[in-house]
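Reopening this ticket.

The earlier resolution said the output was attached, but the attachment link was broken on my side. Pasting everything inline this time so it's all in one place.
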Amino acid sequence: MVIGLTGKYCSGKNVAEAVLTEYGIPSIDVDKLGHLALDAQIDRIEEAFGASVIADGGHGVDRTVNRRALGSIVFADSAALARLESISHPWMKEETARLVDEYKAAGAKHVVINAAILHKMKLDGICDCIIWIEAPLFSRIHRSLQRDNAGLFSVLKRIYAQRQLKPKPSLNSVDIYRVGNGSDSDTLKRNLDAVLANIEQKGKDGR
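Inline output:
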């Protein structure tokens, strides 16, 4: 089973991913693939955004994308962000599909795709089910202030940007499991245990 794992900022997706990994389920962190995509597509990014977003290490060190410089451009301009996504997202989707096939070939029973923008990237189309992690707004704000060492305004701005992000029917109409993460990690683990039991049962029933 390919399990899509998604949710809003600081809802606890990465904690949920860690729990599933403890159970021996391999996972693909699409956010990390996004970082790899920048350097994999460095020539196209330089062409689209200019040399100012490229860091040259010199002395034979490979060039890399300066993510801070690039971020200052795309997060202030929706058209620029869309242009970046048109470059990076196809590579990320292709790499995700390749890793899924690799894990399947290695005999993995399940594979997790951890992606905040699972639906936007249409990665839900290769998922057999989706787990949506949700948490109260106050908990998300508190976690973000502790985790990211960012100011309240920055946190609220990021949360507001995701206001329309919500669980929705996937491309292939798979089950969506809403998992609450409003209290402690033990509760989250019990909630995930219940979902996995359901997934296992449906797998046995051939659904």
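Reporter confirms the inline version is readable. The mean pLDDT is 87. The domain at 36-107 is CATH 3.40.50.300 (Rossmann fold).
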